[in-house]
Amino acid sequence: MSWLSARSVLYWAEQSATGVTLRDLCQIGLDRNLRREHGVFLHRELRIRLAQRVLELESLPYRLGERSGIRDVIEWYTGFVHLLEDKRFLLQFGVKPIQQPTESPVPYTEELDKEFTMLLTRVFEEHSEVIQAMAFGVQDLIAELREDYSHVQAEVDAILRRFFTARIGMRFLLQHHIESFRNREGHSGILQLACDPEVIARKAVEGIHHTNPGTFTYVPMHLHYMLTEVFKNSCRATVERHAESFDDPLPKVHCHIVHGDEDVTIRISDEGGGIARAALPNIWKFMFTTMKKTPWSGRRDDFRTKPGDSACNPLQRPKQGGVLAGFGVGLTLSRLYAQYFGGDMKILSLDGFGTDVYLHLNRLGTACEDLPQATPTNESHHESSIIQRPRIRSTSWF
Ligand SMILES: Nc1ncnc2c1ncn2[C@@H]1O[C@H](COP(=O)(O)OP(=O)(O)OP(=O)(O)O)[C@@H](O)[C@H]1O
Ligand SMILES: [Mg+2]
């Protein structure tokens, strides 16, 4: 890392990150002026969030930050901080802007916002392969520690949860700003104003039961991801338990959607044999899977991550050829997506019969982003949205 990058990462990591509510983001995406102001906020906020992740990754235990994969993520994020830098910040350190072709001005005007949005598109696309890169670093540690890994697993899981939650937030803000540049009909950025969970669920599976049909404002992409992961698990369990030959009749996977005053709850029930009570805590561990052959095996040596590899996959799930399951990240990541805006995911199992997954989604949109707690260098985070805060003037930022 260059001297300037290190300086700028340290500077931004010490600032406080600010959470945003889904309701505010919806308003911001629909109002050109608010959106422009939000762009100005984002220009600073992204550098803070990226820089905090860099410092956090660098200070991970078990030399995780030095391992292939995680080291790449540190490099990419440092590069993004640098890419979003403003010339006034560089001038502070006596660097002439002309020497920094990547500097990005604060997007005060429509023209600058257009440039900024294009830059964000680039950052978003290059933000890919991160889950996979992080997981490879952890796989490296697992291979080194072998059975001793169980002693450090809880700590590593907490690190990954924290990191992925922060990443969900960053990608959400990036994508919302990009998409709200030209809103699609019925959308504010990536939020669908009248998101019908039944329509999303039908994209993933048949046999949906909707008690009181309705819609709410939500992120269809997140919902689709969570439902696909849960349905995939249910289908796999059902097939493994009931299918001896290819034309065996299989019990249906049921999906029940209920709109409450506060939550939209989706219950997915299968008859795939359930999960033993003793094994239940394991399913929330990163990289826990009961698949015999995992897609990780034999892949560490040829790990070559390259930014931009899977830009077409917005949620960046690790993928390899036709492998559908076995990474052991489906449930943990889905729960993080649910929790990101105040929802949750719970699993109840009738061991020997089947599994019920409850997906609770906050329909009011007032829950603040689930930002990770304070970083090592940052004592406190604001938990307010930009709409409720007094307007920030650029001069106070430097
Ligand atoms: N509906 C279910 N019925 C039975 N077991 C389940 C069910 N859902 C999850 N499990 C158990 O939980 C484990 C973890 O699930 P998770 O979705 O996180 O990972 P995975 O399916 O193994 O891999 P992937 O990352 O590809 O989803 C599964 O390997 C399986 O043993
Ligand atoms: Mg799964």
Main sheet specs: 5 strands, mixed
Mean pLDDT: 81
- Could you say which small molecules are bound to this protein? adenosine-5'-triphosphate, magnesium ion
**Content of β-strand:** 5-15%
Classify the oligomer. Answer: single chain
Please count the beta strands (DSSP E, at least 2 residues each): 8
| Gyration radius, rounded | 22 Å
> What helical percentage do the residues reach?
40-55%
Order of helices and strands: HHHHHHHHEEHEEHEEHEE
* Total of helices: 11
Termini separation comes to: 22 Å
**Poorly predicted parts:** 97-101, 304-315, 318-323, 375-385, 389-398
Strand order of the largest sheet: 3-5-6-8-7
- Secondary structure class reads alpha+beta
Organism: Durusdinium trenchii
Main location: mitochondrion
InterPro entries: AK/P_DHK_N_sf, BCDHK/PDK_N, BCKD/PDK, HATPase_C_sf, HATPase_dom, Sig_transdc_His_kin-like_C
Catalytic activity: L-seryl-[pyruvate dehydrogenase E1 alpha subunit] + ATP = O-phospho-L-seryl-[pyruvate dehydrogenase E1 alpha subunit] + ADP + H(+)
Q: Describe it for me?
A:
This protein has 398 residues and is α+β, with helices and mostly antiparallel strands. It is built from 11 helices and 8 strands. It has helices spanning 3-13, 22-30, 32-58, 70-83, 87-92, 110-126, 130-145, 149-179, 197-204, 220-242, 330-340, and strands spanning 187-188, 191-195, 208-210, 216-218, 254-259, 263-270, 344-350, 354-362. The strands form 2 sheets. Strands 3-5-6-8-7 form a 5-stranded mixed beta sheet, covered by helices on one side. Strands 1-2-4 form a 3-stranded antiparallel beta sheet. A hairpin with a 2-residue loop joins strand 1 (187-188) and strand 2. The chain binds adenosine-5'-triphosphate and magnesium ion. Magnesium ion binds next to helix 10. InterPro entries: AK/P_DHK_N_sf (IPR036784), BCDHK/PDK_N (IPR018955), BCKD/PDK (IPR039028), HATPase_C_sf (IPR036890), HATPase_dom (IPR003594), Sig_transdc_His_kin-like_C (IPR004358).
